[in-house]
Amino acid sequence: MMNTIRMATLVLGATVCLAALSGITAIAAPGIAFAENEKAGTPEMAVCRTCEMRGSGHGEENVVASRMHEGEAYHFCSGPCAEAFDAFPAGYVRLPLPRPAPAVALQTLGETEIRLGEARDDLLLVDFWATWCKPCIKAMPKLTKLHRDYADDGLTILGISIDDDPKKVADFLEKKPLPYPVAIDAKEEPAWAAFGVAAIPAMYLIDREGRIVAEWKGRVEVKDVISKVEKLLAEETSTEHPE
User: Could you name the CATH architecture of 99-240?
Assistant: First the structure.
């Protein structure tokens, strides 16, 4: 079972430059068996799925490799990008929305247990982050404001740190406290693996039925997250109090 997280620095070759320039931190996972490497119909140009999920935003490129996974074709701009997909396809495949959130149990730094993947009384925004992820830290003031604006309306934000050292997280939060709960991801059966997180920042919006109704991976525009939260809360209000 995947139980380690590390920054992808040398193993991804040229694609690291694209990820680094876009401010995205890639997560490298240990290998996972991938039995569907049949030849895919390969166009000359396509958007590299690995780079797309890491937020590079460089558009179509020459296709170097392709994969078929569960009947859908994915194309890549380099061998390392295809290998990253082979190692952790769950982080790159396209999944439908809404879909059930993974059944995950986490304990916050305040020792409160939070269970995902089941019905709940609030709208939950899950934010995967790390103390070494600059885009994650940059998003925190906006998430703090989002929490303060809508906590009373039924929004909960949960930060899930993927740091290996809990002390680093505690020290970070002592200097930059957050008003919403923060959990340290589990070493065994981590939430990032269950959610299919291949790069951070990564955020998931879970409704009161325990379903993922929106997700943002790689290049996360917090304004889009805020807009979706506001829309869902407004829809709930209109349903509860029809004219």
Answer: 3-Layer(aba) Sandwich (3.40)
